[in-house]
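SEQUENCE AND FOLD
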Amino acid sequence: MSRLHFASALLPSGWANDVQVVITAGAIAEVTPGVQPAAGDERHAIALPGLASLHSHAFQRGMAGLAELRGDSTDTFWTWRETMYRFALAMTPDDVADVATLLYVEMLERGFTRVGEFHYLHHDRDGSHYADVAEMAARIAQAAEASCIGLTLLPSFYAHGSFGGAAPHDGQRRFICSVDQFAKLMAASRKAIANLPGANIGIAPHSLRAVAPDELTAIIPLAEGGPVHIHAAEQVKEVEDCLTWSGRRPVQWLLEHAPVDQRWCLIHATHMTDDEVSAFAKTGAVAGLCPITEASLGDGIFPGREFLDAGGLFGVGTDSNVLVGVADELRQLEYGQRLKHRARNVLSGGAGRSTGRTLFDDALTGGARALAQPIAGLTPGARADIVTLDAMHPSLAGRARDAVIDGWIFAAGSGAIDCVWAGGNKVVEGGQHQLRQAARERFNAAVRRLVA
């Protein structure tokens, strides 16, 4: 058991002063506001709950910044994808573990305490299966265990190269499964995370490009009630190709043909009509937004104001992991809306409301739902995922309550984070994860080999 005392803490009911939190077996056992610190309490100034990165491709952290050289033709998501394939084809299981470990260390240092790992790098470099079909999933679990981040593993089903059951691209050979093979992968992946505290599992049909309708129907039961994540409508070309194939847009097709409900998370959903926005919001499914990656890949800007006005729920993910941070994703989300609408504080939710607080609360709720976490926040029964901010940071000076969150997201960034507890373990202190140096050394050695 450990006891923490915070001068100010954001609870589900709002900000409270002089809050004591008791942690037992990795979970929050008691939260008591309005009490003076007791002997033995570890004291901090400002506490927030950790957020979830609901969408991550860990291996892509190793190629961050390697696709910024303009080719001869127009540079788009589709040309970036070729660079990604080449990088993915070179990685060993050890490389995947080393890259994911540093990524998860960085996530924790920057305010993310759980990750939804949309995992599709399954097989050996020639496309053959490992003796343990979940070899790569086990390496993801290894990285999560080493860093202490909460893991929601989302093995991805990927069978085709494009709509209509097109043959897969050779660069996709490490991703490809039949339905029967995927069922075996799911069973083995469950075993890979079975002893990992706080871990859970869902499924991730990759996209309508990669999954035929009959396959989608066949694999959904493999989630066994867990979350279901799918990429949808990320690119205009994807929407056009889906219309050619089915006469429906991707989000429209899913809403008409799949059992989309609160267990589902539609990743990106960037290009929607007004009718799709309204219908999607009504399902209770989460929009999985990855603002930095969506900007990096030139995807477009999600209809955020319209979706929230319709009652929609969102969470944020780090996706390609080109830049990692809670403040960075939430700031980019709001700034994209400001550019689109040529206005300020677009996602605040109303006059007199803090934009930072609104974004934070929405992302906390949406991330928890998308990763099947029934209890979120600093409250009894929740996993003890806690982030403290440095009250001495210049961008937080003189601020209190919601103004602290605004200062963090829009001015201070990741540099304002002091300590982080993940599953009750204090893994970050003074802004640095206890594994940072060792993880960096292993990551650097792996990436030097890969880029060579």
The longest strand covers residues 14-24.
